[in-house]
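User: We ran a pulldown and think these components assemble together. Before we commit to crystallization trials, I'd like a predicted model of the whole complex to look at. Sequences follow.
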Amino acid sequence: MAIEVMKVGIVSCSGEEIPGGTCSRLSCRKVLDDLRPGETVTICLPLFIAGGKEEREFAAKYPTITVDGCEKRCAQRVTERLSGKPSRSLVIPEILAKRGLATPKDRRRLSSPEDKAAVEAVAEEIAKAVGEVLEEE
Amino acid sequence: MARKPKKVVVLPCSGIGKTFGSVAREATYELVDKLRPGVAVTTCLPLLVIDDPEAVRLVRDNPVITIDGCPNDCARKSVEAAGGKPAQSLRAINFYKAHKDLKPEGIAELNEAGQKLSEVAAGELCPLIDELAAQEDE
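Assistant: Here's a predicted model for the assembly, 275 residues in total across the polymer chains.
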């Protein structure tokens, strides 16, 4: 009998215009690829509009964590409006402030040690939230 | 007197799951930051999805080029859903089809060929940017 492994959906702000968006994308990829592979899946945020029923059922199918790069909270708002209530909603400036880290300044390359520390910190928080959600489920 | 928009909006795919999405985004940054700063601008695609008034006005009032990373065409559809009409809707894979020697790999970080492909794509888009900006200035 196959054992179905519960997975957590990660919805990232894409934020092309702001450094927080780039931090979000890189942190989420780190969780998907390195920290929680096999336990996480993702969906491109605009697919809630551009996709079909299957895409809009994402938050019903998976407990979901949204990750936003700024206070406009696009990922959280779009997920709530078009798919379902997220299990956790993380906002990068809040995570970095809590850890005493600076918000990255460049929107294209996050290559300085400070920027890498920010990406790492956000990824750790997402991975921690994934663990909590999996325990709850 | 005719209104004179000064910007050409370049909107890439905003996905975090596909290499060609990253090519689209890098090509956009190349245009906005290096090749046509001040003329080419971008915004966050999800802002259109939440109906952010400033982002919606930007794509309604200015010529828009969308560069999508997969056949779902999220960038184009998001602009259309916001009431804009892209002047050109492109797919990043077509730049690769024209430059098969530059095979992009990676998502979070593109390989050297992917980076080069993004730069080539941006360069090829400059005449279109200039044309659209000139039309709007007339």
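Chain B has a mean pLDDT of 92. That may be worth checking against your pulldown data before setting up trials.

User: Thanks, that helps.
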